[in-house]
Amino acid sequence: MSLTFHDAIDLGLKNNLGVLLQSYNSIAARGEKWKELSELLPNVRGAVSVNVAQDNLAARGLRFPGFPTVVGPYGFTDARVYLTQSILNLKALNRERGAAEDEKAAQYSYKDARELVVLATGNAYLQALSGAARVETAEAQMESAQALFGKATDQQNAGLSPAIDTLRARVEFQNRQQQLIVARNEYAKQKLALVRAIGLPTGQEIALTSKAPYDRLATEGIEPSVQRAYASRSD
User: CA 140, CA 75: separation in Å to the nearest integer?
Assistant: First the structure.
Protein backbone atom coordinates (compact mmCIF):
# COMPACT_ATOMS: atom_id res chain seq x y z
CA MET A 1 0.00 0.00 0.00
CA SER A 2 1.51 3.30 -1.12
CA LEU A 3 1.17 5.83 1.67
CA THR A 4 1.82 9.55 1.36
CA PHE A 5 2.23 11.88 4.29
CA HIS A 6 -1.18 13.44 3.68
CA ASP A 7 -2.83 10.00 3.41
CA ALA A 8 -1.34 9.03 6.76
CA ILE A 9 -2.69 12.19 8.38
CA ASP A 10 -6.18 11.61 6.92
CA LEU A 11 -6.27 8.00 8.10
CA GLY A 12 -5.10 9.01 11.56
CA LEU A 13 -7.86 11.61 11.88
CA LYS A 14 -10.53 9.22 10.58
CA ASN A 15 -9.60 6.21 12.70
CA ASN A 16 -8.43 7.74 15.97
CA LEU A 17 -10.94 7.04 18.73
CA GLY A 18 -10.02 10.14 20.72
CA VAL A 19 -10.88 12.45 17.81
CA LEU A 20 -14.20 10.69 17.25
CA LEU A 21 -15.15 10.98 20.92
CA GLN A 22 -14.25 14.66 21.03
CA SER A 23 -16.33 15.22 17.90
CA TYR A 24 -19.36 13.60 19.54
CA ASN A 25 -18.78 15.66 22.68
CA SER A 26 -18.74 18.83 20.59
CA ILE A 27 -22.05 17.89 18.93
CA ALA A 28 -23.61 17.08 22.32
CA ALA A 29 -22.44 20.43 23.76
CA ARG A 30 -23.96 22.26 20.78
CA GLY A 31 -27.28 20.50 21.33
CA GLU A 32 -27.21 21.36 25.03
CA LYS A 33 -26.63 25.03 24.17
CA TRP A 34 -29.66 25.10 21.86
CA LYS A 35 -31.72 23.38 24.53
CA GLU A 36 -30.87 26.07 27.07
CA LEU A 37 -31.38 28.80 24.49
CA SER A 38 -34.92 27.58 23.84
CA GLU A 39 -35.87 28.73 27.35
CA LEU A 40 -35.08 32.33 26.35
CA LEU A 41 -36.73 32.34 22.93
CA PRO A 42 -40.47 32.74 22.28
CA ASN A 43 -42.31 29.44 22.54
CA VAL A 44 -45.24 28.92 20.21
CA ARG A 45 -47.55 25.95 20.43
CA GLY A 46 -50.91 25.14 18.92
CA ALA A 47 -53.86 22.94 19.80
CA VAL A 48 -56.73 21.73 17.64
CA SER A 49 -59.72 19.76 18.89
CA VAL A 50 -62.80 18.36 17.16
CA ASN A 51 -65.91 17.92 19.36
CA VAL A 52 -69.38 16.48 19.09
CA ALA A 53 -72.00 17.77 21.59
CA GLN A 54 -75.69 17.55 22.42
CA ASP A 55 -77.39 20.27 24.47
CA ASN A 56 -80.61 20.13 26.56
CA LEU A 57 -82.19 23.59 26.32
CA ALA A 58 -84.95 22.72 28.81
CA ALA A 59 -82.35 21.95 31.46
CA ARG A 60 -80.98 25.41 30.90
CA GLY A 61 -84.44 26.95 31.34
CA LEU A 62 -84.93 27.71 27.66
CA ARG A 63 -88.22 26.70 26.15
CA PHE A 64 -89.51 27.91 22.80
CA PRO A 65 -92.83 26.88 21.32
CA GLY A 66 -92.35 24.63 18.36
CA PHE A 67 -88.56 24.36 18.99
CA PRO A 68 -87.10 21.10 20.22
CA THR A 69 -85.79 21.09 23.76
CA VAL A 70 -82.79 18.94 22.80
CA VAL A 71 -80.36 20.30 20.24
CA GLY A 72 -77.84 18.06 18.57
CA PRO A 73 -75.77 16.19 18.21
CA TYR A 74 -73.69 18.82 16.43
CA GLY A 75 -69.94 19.17 15.87
CA PHE A 76 -67.51 22.04 16.18
CA THR A 77 -63.75 22.56 15.86
CA ASP A 78 -61.60 24.53 18.28
CA ALA A 79 -58.17 25.77 17.09
CA ARG A 80 -55.90 27.88 19.29
CA VAL A 81 -52.35 29.25 19.24
CA TYR A 82 -50.40 29.94 22.43
CA LEU A 83 -47.37 32.25 22.63
CA THR A 84 -45.16 32.50 25.72
CA GLN A 85 -42.10 34.68 26.20
CA SER A 86 -39.90 35.14 29.26
CA ILE A 87 -39.26 38.82 29.86
CA LEU A 88 -36.42 38.34 32.37
CA ASN A 89 -35.19 34.92 33.42
CA LEU A 90 -31.75 35.23 34.98
CA LYS A 91 -31.50 31.53 35.74
CA ALA A 92 -32.17 30.54 32.14
CA LEU A 93 -29.81 33.28 30.91
CA ASN A 94 -26.95 32.02 33.08
CA ARG A 95 -27.60 28.45 32.03
CA GLU A 96 -27.46 29.46 28.36
CA ARG A 97 -24.18 31.30 28.90
CA GLY A 98 -22.72 28.31 30.67
CA ALA A 99 -23.82 25.98 27.86
CA ALA A 100 -22.25 28.32 25.28
CA GLU A 101 -18.94 28.25 27.15
CA ASP A 102 -19.15 24.46 27.39
CA GLU A 103 -19.58 24.33 23.63
CA LYS A 104 -16.48 26.48 23.11
CA ALA A 105 -14.51 24.25 25.47
CA ALA A 106 -15.66 21.14 23.59
CA GLN A 107 -14.63 22.70 20.27
CA TYR A 108 -11.18 23.57 21.64
CA SER A 109 -10.81 20.03 22.98
CA TYR A 110 -11.74 18.67 19.57
CA LYS A 111 -9.17 20.88 17.82
CA ASP A 112 -6.55 19.92 20.40
CA ALA A 113 -7.26 16.22 19.82
CA ARG A 114 -6.95 16.68 16.05
CA GLU A 115 -3.64 18.51 16.34
CA LEU A 116 -2.32 15.88 18.73
CA VAL A 117 -3.23 13.10 16.29
CA VAL A 118 -1.68 15.03 13.39
CA LEU A 119 1.49 15.59 15.38
CA ALA A 120 1.76 11.95 16.52
CA THR A 121 0.99 10.55 13.07
CA GLY A 122 3.33 12.95 11.31
CA ASN A 123 6.09 12.18 13.79
CA ALA A 124 5.63 8.43 13.20
CA TYR A 125 5.79 9.00 9.44
CA LEU A 126 8.97 11.08 9.72
CA GLN A 127 10.52 8.49 12.02
CA ALA A 128 9.78 5.80 9.43
CA LEU A 129 11.31 7.98 6.71
CA SER A 130 14.39 8.38 8.88
CA GLY A 131 14.53 4.60 9.33
CA ALA A 132 14.30 4.09 5.56
CA ALA A 133 17.19 6.51 5.05
CA ARG A 134 19.27 4.63 7.63
CA VAL A 135 18.58 1.38 5.78
CA GLU A 136 19.75 2.91 2.50
CA THR A 137 22.87 4.25 4.18
CA ALA A 138 23.62 0.89 5.79
CA GLU A 139 23.15 -0.88 2.44
CA ALA A 140 25.56 1.53 0.74
CA GLN A 141 28.13 1.10 3.53
CA MET A 142 27.82 -2.69 3.35
CA GLU A 143 28.30 -2.66 -0.43
CA SER A 144 31.37 -0.46 -0.02
CA ALA A 145 32.78 -2.76 2.68
CA GLN A 146 32.08 -5.78 0.48
CA ALA A 147 33.95 -4.18 -2.42
CA LEU A 148 36.93 -3.37 -0.18
CA PHE A 149 36.91 -6.92 1.15
CA GLY A 150 36.96 -8.30 -2.38
CA LYS A 151 39.80 -5.95 -3.30
CA ALA A 152 41.79 -6.96 -0.22
CA THR A 153 41.26 -10.64 -1.05
CA ASP A 154 42.48 -10.15 -4.62
CA GLN A 155 45.53 -8.22 -3.43
CA GLN A 156 46.37 -10.96 -0.93
CA ASN A 157 46.03 -13.63 -3.58
CA ALA A 158 48.35 -11.61 -5.82
CA GLY A 159 50.84 -11.24 -2.98
CA LEU A 160 50.46 -7.45 -2.80
CA SER A 161 49.04 -7.18 0.73
CA PRO A 162 49.32 -9.16 3.97
CA ALA A 163 46.55 -11.40 5.32
CA ILE A 164 45.93 -9.02 8.20
CA ASP A 165 44.50 -6.44 5.75
CA THR A 166 42.13 -9.02 4.34
CA LEU A 167 41.06 -9.95 7.87
CA ARG A 168 40.36 -6.30 8.73
CA ALA A 169 38.30 -5.90 5.54
CA ARG A 170 36.33 -9.05 6.38
CA VAL A 171 35.57 -7.84 9.92
CA GLU A 172 34.47 -4.46 8.58
CA PHE A 173 32.24 -6.19 6.04
CA GLN A 174 30.64 -8.35 8.73
CA ASN A 175 30.10 -5.31 10.96
CA ARG A 176 28.33 -3.51 8.12
CA GLN A 177 26.13 -6.57 7.59
CA GLN A 178 25.11 -6.52 11.25
CA GLN A 179 24.39 -2.78 11.11
CA LEU A 180 22.18 -3.35 8.07
CA ILE A 181 20.21 -6.03 9.92
CA VAL A 182 19.72 -3.70 12.89
CA ALA A 183 18.63 -0.84 10.61
CA ARG A 184 16.12 -3.04 8.80
CA ASN A 185 14.64 -4.30 12.07
CA GLU A 186 14.34 -0.76 13.41
CA TYR A 187 12.70 0.36 10.18
CA ALA A 188 10.18 -2.49 10.44
CA LYS A 189 9.33 -1.39 14.01
CA GLN A 190 8.86 2.21 12.91
CA LYS A 191 6.52 1.18 10.07
CA LEU A 192 4.55 -0.96 12.50
CA ALA A 193 4.18 2.02 14.86
CA LEU A 194 2.94 4.13 11.93
CA VAL A 195 0.45 1.45 10.87
CA ARG A 196 -0.95 1.32 14.41
CA ALA A 197 -1.16 5.11 14.63
CA ILE A 198 -3.32 5.38 11.49
CA GLY A 199 -5.55 2.41 12.29
CA LEU A 200 -4.48 -0.04 9.58
CA PRO A 201 -4.22 -3.81 10.20
CA THR A 202 -0.86 -4.70 11.70
CA GLY A 203 -0.10 -7.07 8.83
CA GLN A 204 -0.56 -4.39 6.19
CA GLU A 205 2.63 -3.65 4.26
CA ILE A 206 3.15 0.02 3.42
CA ALA A 207 5.49 1.94 1.15
CA LEU A 208 6.34 5.54 2.10
CA THR A 209 6.11 7.75 -0.97
CA SER A 210 6.62 11.23 0.55
CA LYS A 211 10.33 11.82 0.92
CA ALA A 212 10.23 15.39 2.31
CA PRO A 213 6.63 16.01 3.47
CA TYR A 214 7.44 19.09 5.56
CA ASP A 215 8.16 21.01 2.33
CA ARG A 216 4.52 20.73 1.23
CA LEU A 217 2.58 21.06 4.48
CA ALA A 218 1.08 24.40 3.46
CA THR A 219 -0.42 22.94 0.27
CA GLU A 220 -1.83 19.83 1.93
CA GLY A 221 -4.23 21.54 4.32
CA ILE A 222 -2.39 20.71 7.55
CA GLU A 223 -3.11 22.86 10.63
CA PRO A 224 -0.84 25.94 10.84
CA SER A 225 0.43 24.99 14.30
CA VAL A 226 1.55 21.61 12.99
CA GLN A 227 3.16 23.29 9.97
CA ARG A 228 5.28 25.38 12.33
CA ALA A 229 6.16 22.31 14.41
CA TYR A 230 7.39 20.35 11.40
CA ALA A 231 9.14 23.37 9.92
CA SER A 232 11.19 23.69 13.11
CA ARG A 233 11.84 19.93 13.07
CA SER A 234 13.10 20.06 9.49
CA ASP A 235 15.42 22.97 10.37
Answer: 98
